[in-house]
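Morning!

This is the sequence you dropped in the shared folder:
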Amino acid sequence: MRAVRGYAALMPSGSAARTRKSTSADTRKRGSATKKTHFWSAGSQAFWPLLLCLILDPFIVRFADIVALEGPKVFSLVFPWVMVAHEPIFHLSGDFASTVTQWVLYLQFPLYGLLMTVTFRAGQFLRGFIIGLAAHFSGLVIIAAISYFRP
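The structure's back. Tokens below.
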């Protein structure tokens, strides 16, 4: 009678499986080491929100001149942090308050871009947009709260 090969004889040993995994990992390492790194890689793509906000900032500041003609409510929708900095509850002198609001006007949208860039670098693109919008709308909430509780 002939000997029947059992189930265990058909299975490869554990050491054979480990050597196959290690050889495939070695080839993956070699392949990734020979790849060229492009400027527009995953890490540098994360900077586009900051670059976009920096490019748009002069146009947004020019837009502030036009929106200011519509009144303070429309201006506060677009530039809420400027209105927060200009509130009298901070008891700033007139010249210093003017200087602070000018700085906030120029830095508001680049700071949004910086917040989104930090989040984009973590690989969460939608979360970056949400954080940028949350930063903007939190300024609107603060303006609404100040105007509601103002005597």
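Headline: The mean pLDDT is 78.

More detail when I'm at my desk.
O.
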